[in-house]
């Protein structure tokens, strides 16, 4: 009698789960309060009527700010330790293999990248808005329209992200982002040692090799970093 093997359980790095979890939590809260803000102050394109709540714009801005604060750490992880999860140089050629597993994995990487771009657009356009516009009834500013569009794009990108991840890995893969399971080599108790080792390498000149050859992915990363920097700097110049 053969013994059945234990079902495969996907494992996600603990640091990824932390960054992904907090980013996702703040982002979902920002999306929900964004709709309530739209419903309270605008509502020109219909929707589900909610009770007017004049303070909701400030709450939405707070969740947006928290998302912006944690987003840089998530970007660093995504483009370095998690780079395999993003679009690859050969992704377009692999899209020709429709219906095969590599096709779905490629779509998954593309959807992950789209979520990063959509979130960058949403955070940047939100920072370009003035918090007095909506309370004063100024609903025709270009940046307000851009921010509305950004949240629509964000919702679509998240839906695509979840659907494709469910197709690729099923419910075990989705639940692997929510579990507290921890492998020994992934323990936070090892992080100080990793930081210490990293600092030793920096002192030995390892930073010289940190500038990689210019690729499409590095250009994309630079563009996101420039958008984050501009989101903080440009409002100060108004």
Automatic annotation (TrEMBL):
InterPro entries: Cyt_b561_bac/Ni-Hgenase (IPR011577), Di-haem_cyt_TM (IPR016174)
Keyword terms: Cell membrane, Membrane, Transmembrane, Transmembrane helix
Membrane topology: Multi-pass membrane protein
Pfam families from the UniProt entry: Ni_hydr_CYTB
Annotated Cytochrome b561 bacterial/Ni-hydrogenase domain residues: 13-164
Keyword Transmembrane: yes
Transmembrane segments: 14-38, 58-79, 102-124, 144-164, 219-237
Compartments reported by the entry: Cell membrane
Gene Ontology cellular component annotations, sorted alphabetically: plasma membrane
Name of this chain's protein: Cytochrome b/b6 domain-containing protein
Naturally occurring in which organism (per UniProt): Lyngbya confervoides BDU141951
